[in-house]
């Protein structure tokens, strides 16, 4: 760090709409990593960037500085050929988005290698890491060598950010979560790519969500983010494709942590009963991951391979092996109900008769947070047992006594509040709404 570096001057520069030099970006990121920059200063810079943005050059410098704040995986060190199909996917976050849980084993079953570094819940969206921590014994922080070994032997491993991989982003991510600075294109881009590029990927597929349950509420805003990520990742040498997907409703039939793991197990074991939108987006992402990485050439052939791996049980087997390899129960796929317990108070959400024509997915995500299934403070513990099951989907026709969802809560008061939030968030109509495809656009690098 240069002797003249002053964090407050960097903040002032961006506050006033100026351009931060590469050197100052590197120094500020170094200060995030070693805590010589305070939480308040990190939050202040995040807010300044939120309002004033960053140039493409600043964004690339921030991404690379955060990537280089820790180790960068070199897969040749672990015996992999330079052309090995090391590939990952990242979602910008949504309500009920448990896609990573089933996607990684599907891709692994088709020959891909998936070293997935995931985050915790952010704002109103759930986190992949929080879902896995609902599984007793699951270790989200193995050593880097163990992480690599699981990827090589099982085909996939899903972990959290260790102190060795993009540590600057780990701290920055937590501060953004509680300071209203999540929805910033350069910060989202740097956060995503610093983790993904640290994993030594050959290819990356992005799931950039838009709608009421996404951080980008419009497709236009999501497209701006998607194109920025594709451009920055490409400049860093990682071919990237982005899918714009609709997040105007809960994805799948559950929202929470343990409840989403249960849905994942059911999805993998009996895909014929899977929610259609969840199935479609998972297979779309799998096809592009396999094709872009070269594991299965061609998107159409890759999708066919993904369907086969799901239907013949190979993906379910790999999920079980991954859970066991990371310390979870060896019999988890067969006895998940014995290993995870849901909250004791269960109530139906009755909202009347009619077609589900829309929902405020963000409000539903915040209802999960209010139940204890998310955070309002970075240090807060998550209650994995709470959430919603049997959640209605747009186009469903409800009868007068048919629940729009089931609430799992710790006490009666929390359950009643969650019921009220869902009632306010779901809209009914007398006529069936138009059903839009979950994947709206594909942006290739």
* Count of extended strands: 13
Predict the CATH topology of the largest domain.
Answer: Pyrimidine Nucleoside Phosphorylase, Chain A, domain 2
Structural class: alpha/beta
CATH second-level architecture of the largest domain: 3-Layer(aba) Sandwich
Radius of gyration: 21 Å
Mean pLDDT: 94
Enumerate the spans where pLDDT stays under 50 for 5 or more consecutive residues: none
Order of helices and strands: HHHHEHEHHEHHEHEEHHHHHEEHEEEHEE
Report the sheet with the most strands, covering strand number, pairing sense and barrel closure: 4 strands, mixed
**Helix count, per DSSP?**
17
Residue share in β-strands:
5-15%
Q: So what's the overall shape?
A: globular
CATH superfamily of the largest domain: Nucleoside phosphorylase/phosphoribosyltransferase catalytic domain
Description:
With 445 residues, the protein is α/β, with parallel strands linked by helices. It folds into three domains: 7-53, Transferase, Pyrimidine Nucleoside Phosphorylase, Chain C (Transferase, Pyrimidine Nucleoside Phosphorylase, Chain A, domain 3, Up-down Bundle), CATH 1.20.970; 75-337, Nucleoside phosphorylase/phosphoribosyltransferase catalytic domain (Pyrimidine Nucleoside Phosphorylase, Chain A, domain 2, 3-Layer(aba) Sandwich), CATH 3.40.1030; 341-429, Alpha-Beta Complex (Aldehyde Oxidoreductase, domain 3), CATH 3.90.1170. 47% of the residues lie in helices and 14% in strands. It has 17 helices and 13 strands. The chain has helices at 7-15, 22-34, 39-52, 56-67, 99-109, 128-132, 144-154, 167-177, 185-198, 219-235, 258-269, 276-293, 299-311, 314-325, 332-339, 361-373, 412-425, and strands spanning 87-91, 114-118, 156-160, 203-210, 240-246, 255-256, 345-349, 354-359, 387-389, 397-398, 405-409, 426-429, 439-444. The strands form four sheets. A four-stranded mixed sheet has the order 1-4-5-13, with helices on both faces. α16 runs antiparallel to α17. The protein is globular and about 70 Å long. It starts with 6 loop residues before the first helix and ends with a strand.
């Amino acid at each position: 760090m240069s002797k003249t570096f002053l964090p407050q001057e960097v903040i002032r520069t961006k506050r006033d709409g100026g351009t931060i030099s590469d050197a100052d970006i590197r120094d500020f990121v170094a200060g995030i990593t070693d805590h010589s920059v305070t939480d308040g200063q990190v939050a202040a810079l995040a807010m300044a960037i939120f309002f004033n943005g960053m140039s493409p050059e600043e964004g690339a410098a921030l991404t690379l500085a955060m990537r280089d704040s820790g180790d960068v995986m070199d897969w040749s060190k672990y015996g992999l050929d330079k052309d090995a199909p090391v590939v990952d996917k990242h979602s910008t976050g949504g309500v009920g988005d448990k896609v990573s849980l089933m996607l990684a084993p599907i891709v692994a079953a088709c020959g891909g290698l998936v070293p997935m570094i995931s985050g915790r819940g952010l704002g109103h969206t759930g986190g992949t890491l929080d879902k896995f921590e609902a599984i007793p014994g699951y270790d989200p922080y193995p050593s880097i060598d163990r992480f690599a070994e699981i990827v090589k032997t099982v085909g996939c491993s899903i972990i959290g950010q260790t102190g060795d991989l993009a540590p600057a982003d780990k701290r920055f991510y937590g501060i953004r979560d509680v300071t209203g600075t999540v929805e910033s294109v350069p910060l989202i881009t740097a956060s995503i790519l610093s983790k993904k590029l640290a994993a030594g990927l050959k290819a990356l597929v992005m799931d950039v969500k838009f709608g009421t349950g996404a951080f980008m509420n419009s497709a236009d805003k999501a497209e701006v983010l998607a194109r920025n990520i594709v451009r920055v990742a490409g400049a860093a040498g990682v071919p990237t494709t982005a899918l714009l997907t609709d997040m105007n409703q809960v994805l799948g039939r559950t929202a929470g942590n343990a409840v989403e793991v249960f849905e994942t197990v059911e999805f993998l074991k009996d895909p014929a009963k899977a929610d259609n939108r969840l199935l479609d987006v998972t297979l779309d992402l799998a096809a592009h991951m396999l094709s872009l990485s070269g594991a299965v050439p061609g998107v159409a052939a890759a999708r066919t391979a993904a369907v086969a791996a799901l239907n013949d049980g190979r993906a379910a087997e790999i999920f079980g092996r991954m859970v066991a390899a990371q310390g979870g129960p060896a019999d988890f796929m067969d006895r998940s109900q014995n290993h995870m317990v849901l909250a004791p108070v269960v109530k139906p959400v009755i909202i009347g008769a009619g077609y589900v024509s829309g929902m405020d997915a963000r409000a539903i995500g915040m209802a999960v947070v209010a139940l204890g299934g998310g955070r309002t403070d970075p240090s807060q513990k998550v209650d994995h047992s709470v959430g919603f099951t049997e959640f209605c989907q747009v186009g469903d026709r409800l009868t007068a006594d048919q629940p729009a969802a089931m609430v799992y809560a710790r006490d009666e008061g929390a359950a009643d509040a969650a019921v009220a939030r869902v009632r306010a968030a779901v809209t009914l109509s007398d006529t069936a709404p138009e059903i839009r495809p979950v994947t709206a656009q594909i942006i290739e690098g």
